[in-house]
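Format notes (please read before filing issues)

Several people have asked whether sequences and structure tokens are stored in separate files. They are not. Every record keeps both together, in the order shown below: the sequence lines, then the token lines. Line labels are part of the format and must not be stripped during preprocessing.
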Amino acid sequence: MLMPKKMKYRKQQRGKMTGTASRGNDFAFGKFAIKAMEPGWLTARAIEAARRAMTRYIKKGGQVWIRVFPDKPVTHSSAETPMGSGKGAVDHFVAVIRPGLILFEMDGVDQTLAKEAMRLAQHKISMKTKFISKEE
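Then the structure lines:
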């Protein structure tokens, strides 16, 4: 699973997800993409599941680019832990997603194949997304 090699600080605060994406909101590599339509956290597991769904469907043709990286640690206290025992240990990593951010890109396949592969990937993502293509 995706996770940072090292971090400056082990635990982070939750933060805000207001506004739209100002970076990463345009094509950089491929012709087809999945774009986020609402804010949220995308877990490393969800990113990997979506990647697998796409690459399995397109088989050996085409290429997939992952445009997000889970660099935010999420902590979790164990069950039935009383209040006041400090912040929990790091449980998993998430990528902070704002509306308009491109999550995945694809190239080297025709539009119908790309659309179906990305539809399968969209089912693995816990937020509203949209299939977009670059106009020639």
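For reference, the curators noted about this record: The longest strand covers residues 89-97. Helices lie at 44-58, 111-122.
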